[in-house]
Each structure stands twice: as C-alpha cells, then as structure tokens.
Specification:
With 435 residues, this protein is of the alpha+beta class. The chain contains 15 helices and twelve strands. Strands 3, 8, 9, 10, 11 and 12 form a six-stranded mixed sheet that branches. α1 packs antiparallel against α2 (22-33). The longest helix is centred in the first third of the chain and has 17 residues, at 91-107. The mean pLDDT is 96. The chain binds protoporphyrin IX containing FE. Protoporphyrin IX containing FE binds next to β8, α13, β11 and α14. The site of protoporphyrin IX containing FE has 28 residues, from β8, α13, β11 and α14.
Length: 435
C-alpha cells in the first residue's frame, strides 16, 4: 500500500496514511495538515466519564439522529512486556500505563476531532493471575461461532482501539507512545508514560467508515474491478448500518455490579468480504432482502443506501418474530431480521452496541466488527440467531451460506473477546479489581 499523491482528497489521504503507518506516513500528514491544529484534551482526565466506551455524547449525529463514528480507526493488539513479577504486571508498570493513557487524554480532545479510545483485556491476560474473574464478568475465551468459518482466535493480552477523524492524531500517538526514538511531547503535551515500555504491538489493524470512503478505496481484493460501491455508501456493501433504535445504549451494555461495574465486554471479529457475487448477482431489492428482510424489500422501504430510514432499520418485532414464515414464503431470510431475534433482552431492549468499520488491510476488503454487551454470552446468542441454523434445518431453499442473509459474502478470519474495565481500573487490572 502506498500513500496517494498530493491531489488525493483529504479524507482519502488520511485513510491511506493510517493504513501505511510509520514515521513516513506521519511526516506526510504533517506536511499536508501541520498547520491545522488538533484540539487538545482535558487538564484533569478524571473529569472524563468512568465508562471508557462512553464515546457517543462526544460524537456528532447525522440528520436521522444516529451517532456518526469517527472516520479513522486503529486497532492495536498488545502483549504485556513489562518487568513482571511472577508473570503479573508490577505496580510500576501499572503506573507507566496509567500515565501513558492520561497523556493521550490531555493531548487530544475526547471527540471525533480529537481522539476517543478504549482498552480491553483478553481472557488470556487474566489467566496469569491466581484469582479468577468474578461471576459478574462473562468473559470466556474466544471460539468458533459459526458452522461455516474457522477463525484464528485472538489471544493477545489487550486491545487498544483508537478512533478519530484525524488519522494523523492516531499516527502521532503510535509513534510517540510506542516508537523507539520518540519526541517528549504529544500534540504539545508533555509525555508522562510510554505504552511501548509495557506493551509490544502484536498486531496492527486499521479501519475506516463514512460516506465516500468505501467508494474511494474499493480498488482492493474482494471488490469487483468495475467499482460498484456507491459513492454515498458508508460501508462496502452499499448500505448504512447502526441505526439509533437498533443499537443498545452505552448505559445498557455496562456491567451492572461487581468490581468491574461500569465496564463492558467487547467481542471483535475480523471478517473478510468477497463481494463479486453481492454486486454481480443482486438487484437493489435483492440486496435489501438479504441484508434487511424480504418484507422490507417488498415494501420498497429502503431507498439508496438507507438514509430514508431515519433512526430505525425498519426491522419491527412483527418482522423478526415472523422470520420462519418469511423463510417459507420467500425461500430467503435477511441478515438483520435474523440477527435481531437474538438481540433483545426480556423487556425488549436491544442487547448489543455494534461499532463496525471497514478495512483494506492486506489489500483486501474486510470489516472490523466490535460489539459491546454486558456479557460475551449475549453476543454469542446474537451470533447464533444470525447463523440461522434452525432455518437451514427447516427450509430446504436455505443453506448455511446461501439465501441465509449475507453469509455468502462474509468470511470470519479472527475472533477475540475483551473486558473493557471502567476507566478507573483500565491499567493492568487484576481479576478481583483490587490493586
Ligand atoms: C459485512 C458485514 C455486515 C454488514 C455490512 C452488516 C450490516 C447490517 C445492516 C445494514 C443492518 C440493518 C441496519 C442496522 O440495524 O444497523 C444490520 C443489522 C444487524 N447486524 Fe449486521 N452487518 C454485518 C455483520 C454482522 C455481524 C457479523 C453481526 C454479528 C452477529 C451482525 C449483527 C447485526 C445485528 C444484531 C443486527 C440487527 C440489529 C437489530 O437488532 O435490529 N452484523 N447489519
């Protein structure tokens, strides 16, 4: 992957710079955007919300009232590499990490114009302690969750996801807090601790989202060469997702009790997309049927990329409860209607907060799919509903990969599970929450 020339649009340039990474990409950004300041953060990071994943109130909304995610995302998969005392992080390493994270919050405004982030820890991280996580935390190791994929299980210790509209901010954090030859300040703020002193970067993945970006970046594997991705689409498949009424609130995905109350769990899948058949074989209505529901396709409910839907995907209780009848009538079931069956708790509240973004890592179209929920078991129930194994068994027209939502086009490559502790416990937590 190379940096585009000076005439590339600003957003496309920022996207490419993040994917390329390293000092050369950062200096190319400084050449181009060096005189456009990025807002600094708070003097006192303890004034920020205790929920690390409390991003929504600091992000803009679109005309439909939906949260607009920052455009650029950096996923750093990290392994603990500090002094360690019997394999367990030391108090000094904990302080270094806490100081490094506070440095980011002082350096950049907590918003899409600055940076938002969260740091989560895997079951493999917690395995090094003698004590176990309390029952109030549902964090099993990642596992295979569909009958049709055999993903690599992400067992790194931690995942730091950083997001911003300014990828130069993300590159600067990476170079400054992890680099060997780093300067003493970050966006003009003095550095108090370096993450590279306690973590090694085991894997680096990048993502993006927003109208225009998929179209501008569709020249990769997995997307037909005739450039079918609509200009206004925020995602490669050509539609919008993440409607307000179909998303859990941050409050409702927070762990309610125990030492990690105010934290959450995060499942992250990396999904390769193969969209030649998606664009080659489906009309607009067929795409709506497979992604949403044949019932919405029949009603012409989704226009273009779906801006007309406002803040609700249109998948009503009646629609998802009638999926079996839909399968019988149409010989086909939609992705959203199928998944929604598992995505409501007993009182009808949406269970998962999905924040998925696109990627062209390794020059192939893929999706990073982070989902936040109180416990990983809830995500697994949603995935089970999306698998549609019951429907495959009952309806001969529906196969695990065919006429079964979007399974024909998506292939799960990685899965990881993480506990995102409350901010107060985010630096090398112990399983009991005690220091
Ligand atoms: C390329 C991959 C994917 C794309 C393009 C995609 C897109 C969409 C779209 C357009 C909708 C309807 C609008 C909305 O409610 O946001 C939807 C709904 C949904 N998706 Fe996906 N999705 C993908 C993968 C996944 C995966 C892997 C899961 C994990 C289980 C998932 C879970 C859901 C759920 C639970 C809903 C229904 C929300 C509700 O309860 O109403 N999606 N998706």
């Amino acid at each position: 992957m190379e940096l585009p020339g000076p005439n590339a649009s600003r957003r496309r340039f920022l996207k490419a710079a993040l994917a390329v990474g390293g000092t050369s990409a950062l200096s190319a950004c400084l050449d181009r955007f060096g005189d456009e300041p990025i807002p600094q953060g708070v003097d006192d990071p303890t004034t920020l919300p205790d929920r690390q994943f409390a991003w929504n109130d600091s992000l803009p909304r679109d005309d439909g009232g939906n949260v607009v995610l920052p455009e650029q995302h950096l996923f750093l998969y990290l392994d603990y590499d500090g002094e360690a005392d019997d394999g367990v992080p030391t108090a000094a390493d904990r302080e270094t990490l806490a100081a490094g994270l506070r440095t980011i919050e002082r350096a950049f405004e907590w918003s899409n114009e600055g940076v938002v982030f969260d740091l989560g820890y895997s079951p493999a991280y917690f395995d090094r302690f003698e004590a176990s996580l309390p029952d109030s935390v549902d964090l099993p190791p990642p596992r295979r969750l569909t009958p049709v994929d055999t993903p690599t299980l992400d067992e790194q210790d931690a995942l730091l996801q950083l997001a911003s509209d300014r990828s130069d901010a993300l590159l600067e954090i990476e170079e400054t807090l992890f680099g060997d030859d780093a300067p003493g300040t970050l966006n003009g703020v003095e550095i108090e601790g370096r993450l590279g002193d306690v973590f090694t970067v085991a894997d680096r993945r990048t993502g993006f989202i927003g109208p225009g970006l998929p179209a501008a970046n569709q020249g990769v594997g997995g997307i037909p060469e005739n450039g079918p991705v609509p200009e206004e689409a925020p995602l490669f498949m050509g539609f919008k997702a993440g409607f307000e009424k179909n998303q859990a609130s941050e409050a409702s995905v927070a762990i309610a009790e125990g030492p990690f109350a105010g934290g959450t769990t995060k499942h992250v899948a990396r999904i390769r997309q193969q969209l030649d058949k998606w664009y080659g074989e489906n009309s607009h209505d067929e795409m709506v049927a497979k992604l949403f529901s044949p019932r919405l396709a029949e009603d012409g409910a989704v226009e273009g990329v779906g801006e007309n839907l406002g803040d609700d995907s249109g998948i009503t209780d009646e629609i998802y409860e009638a999926v079996d009848g839909t399968a019988a009538e149409f010989g086909l079931v939609g992705h959203a209607e199928k998944a929604a069956r598992g995505n409501r708790d007993a009182d009808g509240t949406v269970r998962t907060l999905r924040r998925h973004v696109e990627s062209t890592d390794d020059d192939n179209a893929s999706l990073h799919f982070p989902s936040y929920q109180q416990g990983i078991g809830e995500f697994e129930a949603v995935q089970e509903a999306m698998n549609g194994t019951d429907l495959v068994g009952d309806h001969p027209a529906i196969n695990p990969r065919v006429k079964n939502g979007i399974f024909r086009y998506i292939f799960v490559e990685n899965r990881g599970n993480f506990l995102v502790p409350p901010r107060s416990l985010r630096a090398f937590p112990t399983p009991t929450g005690a220091p």
